Amino acid sequence: MSAKLERLSLILRDVFGDALQSLVVDRGEVTIQVAASDYLRVAGILRDHADLHFEQLIDISGLDYSAYGNQAWGGRRFASASHLLSVRHNWRVRLKVFADDDAFPVLDSVCELWPSANWYERESFDLYGIMYSGHPDLRRILTDYGFVGHPFRKDFPVSGYVEMRYDPEVGRVVYQPVTIEPRENTPRIVREENYGDVGHG
C-alpha cells in the first residue's frame, strides 16, 4: 500500500471510527462501507472535512448482489457505490452503502451535497429500482416511461417482458408481449488436426 493510501485510510478510520462497517484497500483503491442510516452524514463529512475534502462526485453505481460470485449472497441485495475525488489532496474513495429493505430499496439522495448526483441516482433508480429519498426529480432516464421492471437486476429476463413495434394500422408504436422464443446457443467448435502447430501453416 502506498504512503498516500495509508494516510487516507488512517484519516478515514480516525474521522469515522465505528461508523465504518468496513475499509478495504485493494488494487490501489480505498472502499469504505457504512450503514444506510449513516450514509448522508458520512457523505457530508467526506465533502466538508478539511483533511478529506472530497469536493467532486465522479459517479454513483447501483449494485445487485443477489448472485455475487456466481453463488448465493447472504447479505443485503441492493447497494449504491459513490465514487468521490478530492482535487485538493489528489485522492479518491468509493463510498458503498446497502439498502436495508431488499423488497423496496431506499437510500438517501446526495443531490444536495453534489448536484452531479442527480442523473446518476436517476440511472440507478431506472436500472436497479433503488429509490433515493429526497431526490428532486426521481424518474426514469434511460428506459421508456412505460417500461416495466428494472433491467440491470439479475432476475430480469434477458429478453425482457414486452417489445415495441410500429403498427401502421394504428399509426403509432405499440407494446406487445415478447415474441422471441428462448433458445440455447451452443458454440460450434472447429477442431483441426494441426491447429496451432507452427510447422503446418
TrEMBL record:
<dbReference type="GO" id="GO:0005886">
    <property type="term" value="C:plasma membrane"/>
</dbReference>
<keyword id="KW-0874">Quinone</keyword>
<keyword id="KW-0813">Transport</keyword>
<dbReference type="GO" id="GO:0048038">
    <property type="term" value="F:quinone binding"/>
</dbReference>
<protein>
    <recommendedName>
        <fullName>NADH-quinone oxidoreductase subunit C</fullName>
        <ecNumber>7.1.1.-</ecNumber>
    </recommendedName>
</protein>
<keyword id="KW-0560">Oxidoreductase</keyword>
<dbReference type="InterPro" id="IPR001268">
    <property type="entry name" value="NADH_UbQ_OxRdtase_30kDa_su"/>
</dbReference>
<dbReference type="GO" id="GO:0008137">
    <property type="term" value="F:NADH dehydrogenase (ubiquinone) activity"/>
</dbReference>
<keyword id="KW-1003">Cell membrane</keyword>
<dbReference type="InterPro" id="IPR020396">
    <property type="entry name" value="NADH_UbQ_OxRdtase_CS"/>
</dbReference>
<keyword id="KW-1278">Translocase</keyword>
<dbReference type="InterPro" id="IPR037232">
    <property type="entry name" value="NADH_quin_OxRdtase_su_C/D-like"/>
</dbReference>
<dbReference type="GO" id="GO:0050136">
    <property type="term" value="F:NADH dehydrogenase (quinone) (non-electrogenic) activity"/>
</dbReference>
<comment type="similarity">
    <text>Belongs to the complex I 30 kDa subunit family.</text>
</comment>
<keyword id="KW-0520">NAD</keyword>
<comment type="subunit">
    <text>NDH-1 is composed of 14 different subunits. Subunits NuoB, C, D, E, F, and G constitute the peripheral sector of the complex.</text>
</comment>
<feature type="domain" description="NADH:ubiquinone oxidoreductase 30kDa subunit">
    <location>
        <begin position="32"/>
        <end position="161"/>
    </location>
</feature>
<keyword id="KW-0830">Ubiquinone</keyword>
<keyword id="KW-0472">Membrane</keyword>
<dbReference type="Pfam" id="PF00329">
    <property type="entry name" value="Complex1_30kDa"/>
</dbReference>
<comment type="function">
    <text>NDH-1 shuttles electrons from NADH, via FMN and iron-sulfur (Fe-S) centers, to quinones in the respiratory chain. The immediate electron acceptor for the enzyme in this species is believed to be ubiquinone. Couples the redox reaction to proton translocation (for every two electrons transferred, four hydrogen ions are translocated across the cytoplasmic membrane), and thus conserves the redox energy in a proton gradient.</text>
</comment>
<dbReference type="InterPro" id="IPR010218">
    <property type="entry name" value="NADH_DH_suC"/>
</dbReference>
